Amino acid sequence: MSGLGLVLHPTRDVSEVVGIIERWATRHHKSLMVRAEDKHRVPASVAPVPADQVAVLADALISIGGDGTMLGALRSAVLDPKPVLGVHLGRLGFLVEVEPPELPDALSRLLSHDFTIESHACLACDVCGDDVVAFNDIALVRQPGSGFVTATLAVDDQQYGYYRADAVVVSTPTGSTAYSYAAGGPLVSPAADAVVITPSAPMAGISRSVVLSPDEKIRLELEPNSSAVVVEMDGLVFRDAATEGTVDISYRRNAGLVVRFDPQRYQERNQLKMSLLDLPFLPDQLSELLPDELRRQSQRELPPRC
After folding, report:
1. Are the beta carbons of 155 and 230 closer than 8 angstroms?
2. Cα end-to-end span (Å), the chain
3. What is the CB neighbour count within 10 angstroms for residue 211?
4. Annotated binding residues
5. Is there a single domain that holds both residue 111 and residue 128?
6. Rounded to an integer, what distance in angstroms lies between the CA atom of residue 107 and that of residue 113?
7. Do the beta carbons of residue 140 and residue 153 sit within 8 Å?
8. What distances in angstroms separate CA 248 from CA 78, 102, 211, 237, 240, one per listed residue?
9. Opening angle at CA 155, ends 75 and 158, nearest 5
10. Per the structure, how many domains does the chain have?
11. pLDDT in tens, 267-290
């Protein structure tokens, strides 16, 4: 691997992690690149390139942030998937595996191809004529105060039923632990091929999650009596205040390639994180359960409160 592309969290301070990568790249005579908009956030030795060229020119991508940054890196390479290494700067981080102190060893293992690839599917969506992809989910969400999302569901052109809910979430197996899970949807193994449709706070119509084959074509069509709808892609607003139109969704296998060094340890961490999400405690309450030294360390790492 001669060139690595950096994908940065949009707001967090990434200078320490970028410094580790830059020093490693200098020692190993590797080139680094970043999108031109982020050139002021990295050392001068990191080459700025057009945003749509980072994934094209790089042999691998390094995502520095949380799951949102990781999803952005995967979307940027969807036309020509490249291995994506996630460095954790977020809060939970279900997709990222490497902590900053582990980075030098991880980069050396990346260079020597001492890793496995975890393949991820995406949802390829036609939203009112615009093509988008989502690795977690695509959601039709009501605007606050404007009523409910009312949409019909068709599977392979067969009418299935309708939704009247606060939101309708269509997710991949990876995305089943995100918005869909919060709406009461099932956890789906990342090794499975499936599409999950989950209504959030349903008032009428389909009220439970529907699990479909990856080969079935999905269409959601807004009804004339639907409220204004926000269309979200991996949590990002793609279309605001839509009042009519359709969303056609298909499943695309092997659309993203995630670098894994220790899959078993990674799965154990995620299992623990999911368990903690279901505990009805605030972070300060959970920290009281830790030994004194670990509690002091966690308090030093917590961001200041506003």
Report:
1. no
2. 43
3. 15
4. 67-68, 136-137, 164, 166, 201
5. no
6. 10
7. no
8. 18, 41, 16, 17, 17
9. 155
10. 2
11. 666 565 655 566 666 666 666 666
What was the pLDDT predicted at 97? 86
Q: Which residues are annotated as a binding site for NAD(+)?
A: 67-68, 136-137, 164, 166, 201
Tell me if 240 is assigned to some domain.
Answer: yes
Two structure tokens written together for 112: 């020597």
- Helix, strand or coil for residue 263? helix
What's the pTM?
0.86
Q: Judge whether 23 lies within some domain.
A: yes
Which one of 67, 105, 131, 284 is the catalytic residue? 67
DSSP state of 98: B
The per-residue pLDDT for range 200-227, each reduced to its tens digit, is 999 999 999 999 999 999 999 999 999 9
Q: What are phi and psi of 200, to 5 degrees?
A: -105, 125
Is the Cβ–Cβ distance between 77 and 61 less than 8 Å?
yes
- Pairwise CA distance, residues 78 & 81, whole Å: 5
DSSP per-residue letters across 245-261:
-EEEEEEEEEEEEEEES
Q: What angle do CA 208, 211, 215 make, to 5 degrees?
A: 150
> Quick check: is 229 in a domain?
yes
Domain membership of residue 250 as a residue range: 122-254
Q: What is the mean pLDDT of residues 3-9?
A: 97
Q: Which of 89, 204, 219 is nearest to 160 (CA)?
A: 219
Task: In whole angstroms, give the CA distance from residue 177 to residue 255.
Answer: 19
Tokens of 108: 């050396």
Q: Which residues contact 269 (CB under 8 A, 6 or more apart)?
A: none
What separation in angstroms does the CA of 45 have from each of 72, 89, 155, 248? 24, 23, 51, 43
278 catalytically annotated: no
Is the distance from CB of 167 to CB of 200 less than 8 angstroms? yes
Domain containing 148 — which CATH number?
A: 2.60.200.30
